[in-house]
Amino acid sequence: MKNDTVLNIEVEQIKASKIDQVDFDNLDFGKVFTDYMFVCDYSEGEWKKPEIVPYQPITIDPSAKVFHYGQAVFEGMKAYKDDNDDVWLFRPDENFRRINLSSQRLAIPEFPEEFFFEGLKTLLQLEKNWIQKGFGNSLYLRPFVIATEPGVSASPSSDYKFMIICSPAKAYYSGEVRVKIAEKFSRAADGGVGFAKAAGNYAAQFYPTSLANAQGYQQIIWTDASSHEYLEEAGTMNVFFRIGDKLLTSPNNDRILDGVTRKSVIALAEDAGIDVEVRRVSVKEVIEAAENDNLKEIFGSGTAAVINPISGFAFQDKKFELPKLEDSYAGYFKKTLMDIQYNNSEDKFGWRYKI
Ligand code: COI
User: Fold this and answer.
1) What topology is assigned to 10-171 in CATH?
2) Where would a tag sit more exposed on the chain, N or C end, judged by fewer CB atoms within 10 A?
């Protein structure tokens, strides 16, 4: 991870900040954006000099490959402010690694490490006032890459745009989250792009999720595409199951996003002496545990969602509500994780990154 690069990214100053028009107490996730954005173009085989410009619409040719073939990847990150007004990122090296892994799978050229870190640092120094203090407040960062070459031939683009936009955020889900276990639709298949943060992975979930929404479920827990017997991830979150006192989560494979929060939860569980098993989790064992009152918790983990308890779920015609525990694992992980993210506790894993 680069901590000492000096790129001197050029900044085109805004005329006036929009910050006074923002109601920070009533934020809908991802609706409000800050004053600046980071932009870096790729053409003639290289990433050009990045710059930071006022947040504004961009102009792209209607034939650009991103519109026709979905050649696009993204990341989700958050910046946190501590009581001393210092700003922190959480494991940004993981996001950097993953965006390039996603890019590789989508035939997009890798982005240089110093551009990524210097871009984030310069942008966050400019946008510091947009980061509210306090647990749950953050600045959600959305790095993304799109294919901009005009022309509808089905081949990788020669031109790209890497950008970072920032949105002040509170909770991703407001209210209780209930999920449906997928029986028919799939999110990803073996050998596909499920592990990548490819834009199309999210588009492919919208229709089945809207059917689940109409039945009162906020999300789907996706099962493996070939048998639908094993639980994988929830699309906006990785998922954990607590059966008795054992914590279970599916191993990474080429269908599941390698979540940064997921891997942090596994490390925190091991550190706390919680019995954690990373293995395939069958629908059958979860249903049986629920029927025997042994399924204590299901929760999701993700950058946007943080740790989100699932209050109930459905599979076929069966519906289950989960108990509300005083000493839930979800509560423990959320607090322990946030203490690290907001510089409220020791960072013994070295996960914090100071801006
Ligand atoms: C994130 O957690 O950052 C994600 O990318 C999920 C997104 C769909 C909001």
Assistant:
1) D-amino Acid Aminotransferase; Chain A, domain 1 (3.30.470)
2) N
